[in-house]
Amino acid sequence: MEQKASNAPSLCTWKPNGISPHVHRNVQNDRKKFLPNILEAIGQTPLIKLNVIPRLYGLKCEIYAKCEFLNPGGSVKDRIAYRMIQEAEEKGLLTTGSTIIEPTSGNTGIGLAMAAAVRGYRCIIVMPQKMSNEKLFTLQALGAEIIRTPTEAAWDSDEGHIKTSERLQKEIPNSIILNQYINPGNPLAHYDQTAEEIVQQMNGEFDYFVGGAGTGGTISGIGRRLRELIPKCKIIAIDPVGSILAEPQEINETHKTFYDVEGVGYDFIPTVLDRNVIDEWIKCDDLESFNMARLLIKKEGLLCGGSSGSAVVSAIKLGKKLDENQRIVVLLPDGIRNYMTKFVSDHWMISRGYMDPKVPSGCESWWNIPVSNLELIRPDELKNGTTCKDAIERLKNNKNNLDIMLVVNDNGNKVRGYINLKSIRSGLINGEVKLSDPADKTLIREFIQLSSDVNLGVIAKLLEKEPFVFIFDYRKDDEFIGIATQEYLMKFIDNLMNQI
Questions:
Q1: Distance (Å, whole) CA 352 – CA 458
Q2: Same fold? 47-54+63-70+185-339, 77-177
Q3: 247 exposed, middle or buried (CB, 10 Å; 0-12, 13-18, 19+)?
Q4: Which CATH number is correct for 77-177, 1.20.140.150, 3.30.460.80, 3.30.499.10, 3.40.50.1100?
Q5: Nearest C-alpha neighbor of 415 from the set 385, 439, 440, 398
Q6: pTM, whole model, 2 decimals?
Q7: What is the pLDDT of residues 214-256, one digit of tens each?
Q8: Catalytic positions, written as ranges
Q9: Which whole-number Å values give the CA distances from 472 to 451, 479, 480, 484, in the listed order?
Q10: Where do the structural domains in the chain lie, given as residue ranges?
């Protein structure tokens, strides 16, 4: 086909009511011509047949994906947010001037903040630190107030997102926690709507439903309704490695207590999770979840999130046992928007150990050398009671040209995080701390940490964007060894090249 200049004269012959040389395709739309507000656009998400990925894995069965990430707020949680607000309004629990408070991993918060924006309520969302900044920014854009809690805080800890929400609710007049963990509106939204949509879209002809378990409302609500409408259909629940929701309890046993995938799994059993409705549990780890989510994007064009990868990985594990006459429906909970700086990013995938960088030409001589061969920096530790003022002076005079200080636990054997000049100054500027406050109030808990046996190539790729990387010896009870910097890496490479 001949390429023409982008500003070439138009050859279009269109005239009002003229004869068109083109083939026109009419789009069928079952929705109303207009909707009174965005909340009425929730639901009726498409069910899409997966074509490429089942072939790649040699499956005989068919897999269909319920694309909940196409809800207006970007996730399946839009459904329960609207349902819980409707029921609270009907019961008189939400009135003019009310404040909605919710502990959430982010998606329920986005759904509630969207509904609060339409309905005119104040909205406060409490979510763990590990949840993506994209969720944070979306919530802020919707007008919600955000409070972050430590990722490592247990569900029933005073520092956790649930207890923090309960404390706020006592302090703020005319406020309510809709509480997705115990609210019947959570599973009911899926019993009444999501399950019915799936059955209608598939004409009732499918054999398995696969979905993630977080609060448990989705899998329980859909599972209960499918039990009634399609008794032969088996309900398969997904639980990430590191979570404790699955049964039997033995399959949850692992040394791992943290997982990166968001929106599924918990360290307690939520009230709305009905495990009796589930026929089988499948455990899924971060590595396979994120790589499958990227494959769904690349091969099927489905712009989904990490837990969608968990769902499809589990469906494939199941599908390997099935024949060509069987069908699986899998639910994809949320979309790519929430994770642009997480699993969508090669840099993030490499930093978390989920992807190996390619070896550039000319770097072969040092690329695979373990980082344990590199000279590492051991920063000073912050002493208990050090004020922000004193910490600033110490950081300014740091001999390592690295303006950070370690914050360790009371036993001195675990790194909790670090402080630096930026974190202290930001706290001062934002009014979060005073010069006389303890400096550890500006603690940075999130940092890139790698094993001492990782190769220098991985370190080099990360140091292209990161100022430093924390190195631990995972064979010695996660002992902190030191910090790798680009300066010390280049010195090592230069010395190695001079010896060749």
A1: 10
A2: yes
A3: middle
A4: 3.40.50.1100
A5: 440
A6: 0.89
A7: 999 999 999 999 999 999 999 999 999 999 999 999 999 998 8
A8: 77
A9: 5, 5, 4, 11
A10: 47-54+63-70+185-339, 77-177, 358-499
